[in-house]
Specification:
CATH class of the largest domain: Alpha Beta
Helix content: 25-40%
Structural class: alpha/beta
Radius of gyration: 21 Å
Largest sheet: 5 strands, mixed, barrel
CATH architecture of the largest domain: Alpha-Beta Complex
Mean pLDDT: 95
Strand content: 25-35%
CATH topology of the largest domain: Spore Coat Polysaccharide Biosynthesis Protein SpsA, Chain A
Distance between the termini: 41 Å
Number of helices: 11
CATH superfamily of the largest domain: Spore Coat Polysaccharide Biosynthesis Protein SpsA, Chain A
Order of helices and strands: EHEHEHEEHEEEEHEHHHHEEHEEEEEH
Low-confidence stretches: none
Number of domains: 2
Length: 357
């Protein structure tokens, strides 16, 4: 049986002012009418049964998830009492699934990525499931890089691929942290590296064994959860006990039985307003307005994102994003989009305006 585990606990600090503590990026509709969470689950239709989907989120977002995905069983929406990064998130999901079916395959997906060519995406996942079952390995999806990106981690593939269902699959030599520009350029030139998209596939039994071998402390807490009643209190106890660490660092970088399946779909982690501009429908001057009442004059390569009925006009500018909400307006150079996090921290550290987070 295949299960999907959707990680939906992020705070979306790079998408202020649209993203707030009460409703972060994964619960927003940045493209079209569906939220990112809804689109993540929707693209699995026909492959993963709805009753086999689990969503792991912050405890504060349980009602949002239930409202956005009403068909999801209540006990398949897991609230994290405290944020502990991705390793405890994966471990909790694996423990809960182990109680149901130790031989099940779990597909771990971030809730806030934009993926094109959904049929190709599902085809890649099916290949990854076959690899996980055939080799008892930990499988990840590699995104083919098209530029020397310094904001992503990389996967260095081996040179002895195997054929699984007609698809080429590689062993993983090493996971690389986010490189500087020089190293990123070398990665791209070599043709031996993929971007790490944070998508993982493995048998439940295999990932439980991986925690036992590489993260025995968390495995101990997992074991307690497996043999508990798995009540909210048991899950809270698990999260409070676990250290904060990523599954990449805690498991994937240490394990030897790891394969990477090249992804043949379009992928973007939607990590900034610049990414929203890139993915949005644009006019002949590369301006994007979504559903906003926007006017562009002598303006190029810009974005307006607003939920109000106000007319917003940009005149004589280039490479600008204007994001308006009911109580806030942000204007930013798209090349500085990553620095929205700095603005978020400024607001966080100022008690007079902290209410705007």
């Amino acid at each position: 049986m295949n299960y999907a585990v959707i990680m939906a606990g992020g705070t979306g600090t790079r998408f202020w002012p649209k993203s707030r503590k009460s409703r972060p990026k994964q619960f927003l509709s940045l493209f079209g009418n569906e939220t990112m969470l809804q689109k993540t689950i929707g693209r699995l239709k026909g492959f993963i049964d709805p009753e086999n989907v689990l969503v792991i989120t912050n405890e504060d977002y349980l009602k949002i998830v239930a409202n956005q995905v009403p068909k999801l069983a209540k006990d398949h929406i897991i609230g994290e009492k405290v944020a502990r990064n991705t390793a405890p998130c994966v471990a909790a999901a694996a423990a809960l699934l182990y109680k149901k079916d130790p031989d099940a395959v779990m597909i771990v997906l971030p809730a806030d990525h934009e993926i094109g060519k959904p049929e190709a995406f599902v085809k890649t996942l099916k290949t990854a499931v076959s690899v996980a079952e055939k080799y008892d390995s930990l499988v990840t999806i590699g995104i083919q890089p098209d530029r020397p990106e310094t904001g992503y981690g990389y996967i260095h593939r081996g040179d002895e691929p195997v054929n699984v269902g007609g698809e080429v699959v590689y062993p993983v030599l090493k996971f690389e942290e986010k490189p500087n520009l020089g190293r990123a350029e070398k990665f791209l030139e070599s043709g031996e590296y993929f971007w790490n998209g944070g998508i993982f596939i493995w048998k439940v039994r295999t990932i439980v064994d991986a925690f036992k071998n590489h993260m025995p402390e968390i495995f101990g807490y997992m074991n307690d959860l497996i043999y508990s009643e798995a009540t909210t209190k048991d899950i809270d106890k698990f999260y409070k006990a676990c250290p904060s660490i990523s599954v990449d660092y805690g498991i994937m970088e240490k394990a030897e039985n790891v394969h990477v399946v090249p992804g043949s779909f379009e992928w973007n982690d939607v990590g900034s307003w610049k990414a929203v501009h890139k993915l949005s429908e644009k006019d002949e001057n590369q301006n994007a307005k979504g559903n906003a009442n926007a006017l562009f004059h002598n303006t190029s390569n810009s974005l307006i994102h607003s939920d109000s009925n106000k007319i917003i006009a940009l005149v004589g500018v280039d490479n600008i994003a204007v994001v308006e909400t009911e109580d806030s307006i942000m204007v930013i150079n798209l090349d500085e989009a990553q620095k929205v996090k700095d603005v978020y921290e400024m607001i966080k550290n100022d008690s007079d305006i902290r209410e705007y987070l």
